[in-house]
Amino acid sequence: MKKSEIEAMNKSFGILRERKARIIDDERTIQLQKRVKGIREYSIKNMDVLVEKAVKNLEKNGVEVILAEKSENALDAVYSIVKDESMIAKSKSNTAGEIGLSEFLEDKGVQVVETDLGDRIVQLDPDSKPSHPIGPASHLRMDDIAKIISNEFNIDIKPDPRVILDIIKEDVLLKLIKCNIGITGANSVAADDGSVLTVHNEGNISLVSMLDIHIIIVGIDKLVETIEDAVSVVKLETIFASGKTVPAYMNVISSPSKTADIEQIILNNMYGPRRVVVILLNNGRMQAIKEGGECLLCIDCGSCIVTCPIYNEIGNEFGYKRYFGGRGVVLSSFIEGNESCFDSGLFTCTLCGLCTDKCPVGIKTNNLIKNLRNDSVDLNIIIDEHKSIKDRIKKDGSPFKQ
Ligand code: SF4
Fold first, then answer.
1. Do both 93 and 20 map to the same domain?
2. How far away, in angstroms, is 106 Cα from ligand 1 center?
3. pLDDT per residue over 243-279, tens digit each?
4. pLDDT at residue 317 above 80?
5. Both 275 and 356 in a single domain?
6. C-alpha closest to that of 209 among 166, 255, 175, 248
7. Residue 292, domain member (yes or no)
């Protein structure tokens, strides 16, 4: 990331830290943290059962479910639904980022319209990548954003947030009219109820999920038992991600749109979607669970990266795709293996443990990274300089050049 982007990101993270500091020590937050940690631990221990229940209960509610083992299976599943479209609408989704959905669809000739303001700004900037799971444009200054928008729309706009918002809103709304299919992620999935919970502040997920077909892409790690559990998880996520106690919107989606207003006859496709399709993605998560599953306790609040001294210094070069910082490094080892984990910054972490201190569910990322480093050394996937030192010790009994 450029120096100006790091500065803008640090400014944005500073505001976030201040906002959060006002509520994270509140007794209700502390109690919620305990409850959510228990919910997430239960999910990890009972994942097989939850997957089975989620499939059964979502289908019972009229939702189509596809179990995707790997990224390519999820991509194929999406493409089989969207292949006749020229444009689809999308909301923020880390899982979609994980499988490279937008790039895949654009390569196939399907235009993807990001509807989240931050994501849309990043999408319009060819030099930019998201920098925070909830605030993807945290690294861009208002001046830079105004230039991006001016270039895109061939106008000269002032660095005014309201002007920027209005231009993007108008453009996205015009494009939404042409879309039949909306793709979103999910913040939590209640297996017992067969319901998906999404959280947003802009109202964009409501628009995207009301199109004719709604596709939801979600990792199996987002499964919990009940709607009550799902609400607890997203409430804690909101507190630690934004410093607010509740988001503007929580949408519970349990079936396609339907009505029974005429003689109790069930008719689908009233105002909302005709089809709701949930793609449940494994992509290494079951393997992560076999190895303890600690990194899957994550609720995606991004609290770790706001604190991480390395992330604050180098930004999104540290991490894996939309999983930023040390936790992304750990997750990459299960999704793509040790080489990818090394490339994501396995040896960039200082093992300081600040992310662990600030994690609302107590993931010990520094310990997980330490263990992965041991594995990496065993596989000889190490930094060249470390390799030279190792070779010198073996050869001359000293790390120093003779
Ligand atoms: S332990 Fe590593 S990932 Fe965690 S805050 Fe420190 S440098 Fe960042």
1. yes
2. 35
3. 999 999 999 999 999 999 999 999 999 999 999 999 9
4. yes
5. no
6. 255
7. no
d(CA 176, CA 275): 18
Atom 2 in ligand 1: residue holding the nearest Cα: 349
Q: Are 271 and 326 found together in one domain?
A: no
Query: In terms of residues, how long is the chain?
Result: 402
In the block, residue with structure tokens 């509520």: 23
pTM of the full predicted structure?
A: 0.94
Among 359, 366, 371, the mutation site with the greatest number of ligand 1 atoms within 8 A of its Cβ is 366
- Ramachandran quadrant class, 109 (left: phi over 0; alpha: psi -120 to 50; beta: rest): left
- The amino acid at 105: L
pLDDT in tens, 51-80: 999 999 999 999 999 999 999 999 999 999
**Residue 130: helix, strand or coil by DSSP?**
coil
Whether residue 335 contacts residue 287, with contact meaning beta carbons closer than 8 Å, is answered with: no
Q: Which of 294, 298, 303, 310 to mutate to test the pocket of ligand 1 (most atoms within 8 A of CB)?
A: 310
Q: Which atom of ligand 1 is nearest to the CA of 353?
A: 1
Protein residues whose CB sits closer than 6 Å to any atom of ligand 1: 307-310, 325-326, 349-355, 365-366
Tell me how many domains the chain contains.
Answer: 2
Domain extent, residue 218, equals 3-284
Kindly list the distances between the CA atom of residue 345 and the CA atoms of 10, 111, 277, 324, in Å, as whole numbers in the listed order.
Answer: 20, 32, 35, 10
